[in-house]
From TrEMBL:
Region span, Disordered: 255-277
PROSITE patterns registered for this protein in UniProt: GNK2 (PS51473)
UniProt-recorded name of the protein: Gnk2-homologous domain-containing protein
Gnk2-homologous domain mapped to chain residues: 33-135, 141-249
Keywords: Membrane, Repeat, Signal, Transmembrane, Transmembrane helix
Regions of compositional bias (Pro residues) in chain numbering: 257-270
Transmembrane segments: 287-309
Protein's UniProt keywords contain Transmembrane helix: yes
Highest classification ranks of the organism: Eukaryota, Viridiplantae, Streptophyta, Embryophyta, Tracheophyta
Pfam families: Stress-antifung (PF01657)
Domain of life, per lineage: Eukaryota
Length: 468
């Protein structure tokens, strides 16, 4: 378990730090997000046995083929102890993330299941499975795992219907195609003015369309059992999985299959020095004399361009810093400022500083229009979902009650993983209440989830292993 150390930071610094993490957090390397694993001890193998040798060969083969989205193979076929295995990466992750997840999984699974013959492990980015029996092309829905967000959604009946409709649409899209085709699809749908529903469905490509559809139908049918009225949930089977959230947890710009393994390099072109009659020969010295000056010239041009661009940026930055200290730098007339602050209403006041009173647009968030906080000229240069998520995290950091604010450790997780569901922020500090207080919009998290089967806590979600 990761221990979260509560560190309280002033509101302004905390908000600015949160915004910075969106740009630098994803560049930091991290292990795959572990979800769950199953390895029943009904069948085990002895150390240094033939099965262990075959298993090591299988895992090595899976790791070396992690440049593709899916790969299944076997080791020791024909021997008394064959091993069959596969890996499956989530359909929207890139090649690097897929390779890193599989490479990590082949080591992690041996630590979690050191002597079990049948295992399956799930991460947010990939899945790894092996067994002493062939399971290729066959639908398996056991063991099954539920993962859910314990926060409740408003208007649960309408939300549940929307979840059912949207996940079924994603499942129908994912099940198309023949065995061997990629079976992955995402669908989203509008729920209310500032919330959308995002869904994902995926099968192992070795299933045919009928098998994939059967598996996903079973998974979708299990969602009401675990996740009715919840902000998010997923069902994981060995052969398929479904998931829904109220934020974009997948890469919307990467829904095409990952590229195949790198092809062998093409033969080198014929040498320029060959000639049937000795004429037209170009010596290596001549080629070097021609190519080197050209390369040097190109490098000098690139360096010069970079130097000029850097100086121009410094000049522009310095000019902007100087301009902001003068009254002439104000970009809005009095009418615009009065409209934005409701004629300098105290309800919009954030605090006071060197330039006087400072106002904010908390009302825009409550009204479901957070994007109006941005300059309209930026409308073509940002992702709507990223901006709303960033504003949401920022407002969580400046809530009036310090106990409601997330710690820096939690903020890092929020920016680095879409599997973290964001709560709805409460009113910020310095926000002046009117005589009639607005009802609390905070996200209520149950201390425990009341269901009829064992539950295990998984930091960002609750994992429930259900009997079948």
């Amino acid at each position: 378990m990761i221990m979260l150390i509560p560190i309280k930071i002033p509101n302004t610094l905390l908000f600015i730090s949160s915004l910075l993490y969106i740009s630098i957090g994803r560049s930091l390397g991290a292990n795959p997000v572990y979800l769950y694993h199953s390895c029943p001890n009904t069948t085990t193998f002895a150390p240094n046995s033939i099965y262990q040798t075959n298993l090591n060969n299988l895992l090595s083969s899976l790791s070396s083929n992690a440049t593709s989205e899916f790969h299944n193979t076997s080791a020791g076929e024909g021997s008394p102890s064959p091993v069959y295995g596969h890996f499956l990466c989530r359909g929207d992750v890139n090649t690097t993330a897929c390779r890193d997840c599989v490479t990590f999984a082949v080591k992690d699974i041996l630590k979690r299941c050191p002597v079990e013959k049948e295992t399956v492990i799930w991460y947010d980015e990939c899945q790894l499975r092996y067994s002493n029996r062939s399971f290729f092309g066959t639908v398996y829905t056991r063991p099954g795992v539920y993962l859910l967000n314990s926060g409740n959604i408003t208007d649960q009946n309408r939300f549940n219907r929307l979840v059912n409709e949207t996940t079924k649409a994603a499942a129908a899209e994912a099940a198309k195609g023949l065995a061997g085709d990629k079976k992955f699809a995402t669908k989203d749908n509008n729920f209310n003015g500032f919330q959308r529903l995002y869904t994902l469905a995926q099968c192992t490509p070795d299933l045919n369309a009928s098998g994939c559809s059967t598996c996903l139908t079973d998974a979708i049918g299990s969602l009401p059992i675990c996740c009715s009225g919840k902000l998010g949930g997923r069902v994981l089977f060995p052969s398929c999985s479904v998931r829904y959230e109220v934020y974009p947890f997948y890469n919307q710009n990467s829904t095409t299959p990952l590229p195949p393994p790198t092809a062998q390099p093409t033969p080198a072109p014929p040498s320029f020095t060959s000639s049937s009659n000795g004429q037209g020969k170009i010596s290596a010295r001549t080629i070097i004399a021609i190519v080197v000056p050209i390369v040097v010239a190109i490098l000098l041009v690139i360096l010069g361009f970079c130097f000029i661009t850097k100086r121009a940026k410094k000049y522009t930055l310095a000019k902007r810093v100087d301009d902001i200290t003068t009254p002439e730098s104000l970009q809005f007339d009095l009418a615009t400022i009065e409209a934005a602050t409701n004629k300098f209403s105290a309800d919009y006041k954030l605090g006071e500083g060197g330039f006087g009173e400072v106002y904010k647009a908390w009302k825009l968030w409550k009204d479901g229009n957070p994007l109006k906080l941005l300059d309209p000229t930026l409308v073509q240069s940002y992702s709507e979902n990223e901006v709303v998520r960033c504003i949401n995290i920022g407002l969580l950091c400046v809530q009036e009650d310090p106990e409601d604010r997330p710690t820096m450790k939690t903020i890092v997780l929020m920016f680095n993983s879409y599997s973290i569901t964001l709560g709805v922020p409460k009113q910020p500090a310095f926000y002046n209440r009117t005589d009639v207080d607005m009802p609390s919009m905070g996200l209520k998290l149950d201390d425990s989830t009341s269901v009829g089967f064992p539950v295990s806590i998984n930091e960002a979600s609750i994992t429930e292993l259900y009997p079948r």
